[in-house]
Amino acid sequence: MDLTYTEREIQFRDEARQWLEANAPCLPMPPGDSEEGFPVHRAWEHKLYDARWAVVSWPAKYGGRDATLWEWLIFEEEYYRIGLPQRVAQNGIFLLAPTLFEFGTQEQKDRILPRMASTQDMWCQGWSEPNAGSDLAGISSKASRDDKRGGWILNGQKTWTTRGAFCTHLFGLFRSDPNAERHKGLTYFLVDLSLPGITVRPVNKFDGDIGFAEVFFDDVFVSDSDVLGQVNKGWEVAMATTGSERGLSLRSPGRFIAVVERLIALYKQEASNSGDLQNASDDQNGAVQNSYGQNIGDLRRQVADCWMKAQAYKLSTDQTVSLIAQGNKPGPESSLNKIFWSEMDIFLHETALRILGPRASADSEWMKGFEFSLAGPIYAGTNEIQRNIVAERLLGLPRK
Ligand SMILES: Cc1cc2nc3c(=O)[nH]c(=O)nc-3n(C[C@H](O)[C@H](O)[C@H](O)COP(=O)(O)OP(=O)(O)OC[C@H]3O[C@@H](n4cnc5c(N)ncnc54)[C@H](O)[C@@H]3O)c2cc1C
Question: Is 245 part of the annotated catalytic residue set?
Fold first, then answer.
């Protein structure tokens, strides 16, 4: 694997950096999960689209630049480097889109992708139900055939739908054959949330933002053109989406490298303010403590460990991209990836809170980041489930 950037990649980075620096919105932006913040983020992401930076690796005809995955990683590094937030369109562009490219009909791609890239349509993810989370194949929302109208009638309830209160469309799984084995009778639907029979009820997160929604389906008619992949083969399609969520697309290394850069700056600033840096360099026995009673040597090693974790994640992603470039498809390794990024995110934020000591609770940016990081081992499939997948499918251990 040659990790040297080509001339074209260097130029791509320069162009992205210049555009982002000249056009970035005022930071910090209001939270994307809030009523006031969502439209601000959407407008910013529309601006990215207008300049063809929204979906760089997509074909030009859908609003992209035909960029390689390497260039996409470079763009992500530049995006997060200047402190920009994660995208409110992410569930569409990073999760549904790769699945559409793989399983969608030409008509579906042409109809859905440009509107998704431009933020005209905002997509949310409808897997979880009140009685089916980790056990996704246990969903009970139903799709019943309506031959007369050439489509399906949806009934049931989805829950924990991220940004569902603000989105216009939902992709999700419904049980289309109640008599088939659990994984076999499921179909993947693409649903316009303005259809008659749909009720969206916002759910507040503990920070007060409307992060989620419950979505109720009451005799909702969707046409055959809204089925993604084959009828009753939705499980395979959904696994492609979860593979993107756990693997390459949702959490690029640029995001964590940017957090570590901020962390190092925070450490240096805090340490130089209190004279700790000097104390640490004079500290032969590793016993010097800062004013909060933290061992400075430990703290410094922890910051270095954060940096190493982010770099290791970048190298591992480079390896994944190399394998994809050679025609391989990421498999259960994406579960390993998910465990790593979610646990690293908590570690980075815990380190920041440790550096800040008793002032941590007053630092809303690090605190909010920390609170969100705590959800990492739950969303995209809990880490317990990912460890089961690693045990069974990578290590070949027995199921029970
Ligand atoms: C921030 C956030 C965003 C989310 N966004 C979405 C979204 O957009 N769309 C969506 O559909 N869902 C979303 N979810 C829901 C998420 O997918 C579920 O919370 C998750 O799959 C776990 O399901 P559950 O909450 O029903 O917990 P349960 O499945 O009831 O699990 C409870 C606990 O038991 C453990 N457990 C369960 N089964 C096993 C097993 N076989 N082996 C070992 N341990 C097990 C779990 O790991 C967990 O610790 C989101 C969740 C969060 C926190």
Answer: yes
